[in-house]
Amino acid sequence: MSNNSFTYDVIIIGSGAAGLGLALSLPEHLDIAILAKLSMSEGSTNYAQGGISAVLDELDSLDSHQKDTIKSGAGLCHEDIVELVVSKGKTSIDWLLEHNVQFSTHNNTRSKNKLHLSKEGGHSHRRVVHANDSTGKAVQSALSDQVLARPSIKIFEHHNVIDLVTSQTNNNGKKYISGCYVLDTKKDAIISMKAPCVTLATGGASKVYLYTSNPDVSTGDGIAMAWRAGCRVANMEFMQFHPTCLYHPQAKSFLISEAVRGEGGLLLLPDGTRFMPNFDKRAELAPRDVVARAIDHEMKRLGISSVYLDMSHRTAKFTKSHFPMLYQRCLEFGFDMTKEPLPVVPAAHYTCGGVMANKNGLTDIAGLYAIGETAFTGLHGANRMASNSILECLVFAKQASTDIAKFLQNPPTSPSIKAWDDSLVINSDEAIVVSHNWAELRRFMWDYVGIVRTTKRLERAKHRINLLKEEIDEYYGKFHVTSDFLELRNLVNTAELIVNSALLRKESRGLHYTLDYPSLDQKNFQKDTILTP
Ligand code: FAD
Ligand code: SIN
Fold it and tell me: Taking the model in full, what pTM does it have?
């Protein structure tokens, strides 16, 4: 392996809505590096379906969006952050339109060219701006085009960040970021990158579970790296399971958007009976935690492998025009959603907790920012409301850009980064250990730390995590790092944070449900779970 080094004003780790949003909002004179683990488009952003919430309808109000977010968040949303994010809904949509994102509009003469708004769980109004059922692709490709056109932004695809590098400067004992070590996976070379400002925009950690709607890059890298570097992490017990992913051996938990239920989709048992009204008066449009738990309950009660999502009562024309991508993909898997119900199951979807960041995205380390799904800002509380995530990415990208520009007017001087030393390690002849441990971790996290938990199962998971950690430390000390190994290390770190947080919350709230403490405990637990390294 060779050793190169590069210096930038700002390093952005991640090329989804958060990373690209930040790059495009920073002053153009700054030298910026954007790193992506695989290709630039490979992140959750690209797969987002439903849309982006914003108050645009005259019958809707900011107050209503805030109330819905807070209600979905089951008592843990930070109200100042909710107010900040919701108040920037329209500005964020306008910013995307200025950056050439094409959203769906009405095509009737009365409302021609007005943005079409859809509805999802927890929202009491139509307020989800979308590009048919492929909103993420529209956002990802428009922002990528803009970033590629900026000469001051350099993109590094297939670069996997290994760890952050910090230093203590200015004699005040405070930690400053100074850069990161990166594995160039195409060249199998490790480079060091130096910058006074680094932003984690690395997305979520849902790959820690066996079944997930997320792409392969969602391995909690930003959370694990920030934790190892000394940042606090919060609310990791609140992992969100999306209620409806296609149940099909080849579909790899392909998501069926909540917008389908927003347009009348009904959840059915195999005998055709509707069950959601028995669980919540909002029925299919209850928040995700409620719907996913109800499905899990029915599947366990009846010993069935899926429930069904039915749109066949809507006209084929309506379904095909509102959900063209879903219709097509389901056909490829052998299901015609205009004629028959789709078999669906819940799968891990969103990480509500993450690296603690303030209203500007700043973490506990000077110059280190965390934005998007990897961050914990207080917006989502114990359960994120649908379509609030991309909005959060954009709002915090903007907030962070202003703060970073100020910070860089007087940046700290930090020592140069030591070259990566791998003189004492060899190539592994045991790649099987990594793949075996990956599979084991994701399986027991699904079985023991899923939708319904118990203390005993959490402790069982903790015990296994400790064994995996020992093996990982041993491997790290002996062998050259590979991408799979780095991801496994991050997943195990993240799993430990999830389990430790879940063990601390001795109540059931939002996405954390445990049979040992099935009720809400406002007196003792109306607070965030904050872990300090
Ligand atoms: P991502 O878009 O996930 O990007 C992460 C980036 O970090 C990638 O570029 C990746 O390569 C990079 N990265 C990670 N680790 C490293 C590393 N070690 N080194 C280098 N680079 C790294 N939310 C909504 O609001 N509305 C929706 O309709 C919606 N639908 C969704 C549908 C699906 C199927 C999924 C999976 C999610 C959906 N979400 C939706 C959630 C939302 O898409 C994500 O929360 C959001 O896009 C996250 O954006 P991000 O920029 O934080 O991260
Ligand atoms: C969906 O389309 O159901 C996903 C929306 C989200 O996760 O916000």
Answer: 0.96
Q: Which residue has the higher pLDDT, 421 or 306?
A: 306
> Which protein residues are within 6 Å of ligand 2, measured from CB?
49-50, 257-259, 386-387, 389
Q: Is 288 a catalytic residue?
A: yes
**Residues 261-294: tens digit of each pLDDT:** 999 999 999 999 999 999 999 999 998 899 999 9
All domains in the chain, ordered by first residue? 241-349 (3.90.700.10), 431-518 (1.20.58.100)
Q: In the structure encoding, which two tokens stand for residue 55, read together?
A: 């108050």
pLDDT value for 170: 58
Residue closest by Cα to atom 7 of ligand 2:
386
**What is the Cα Rg of the chain in Å?**
22
Question: 50 C-alpha to center of ligand 2: Å?
Answer: 5
| Ligand 1 atom closest to Cα of residue 120 | 28
Q: Which of 288, 293, 442, 464 is the catalytic position?
A: 288
Ligand 1 center from residue 203 Cα (angstroms): 5
Secondary structure (DSSP) of 41-89: T-SHHHH--S-EE---STT--HHHHHHHHHHHTTT---HHHHHHHHHTH
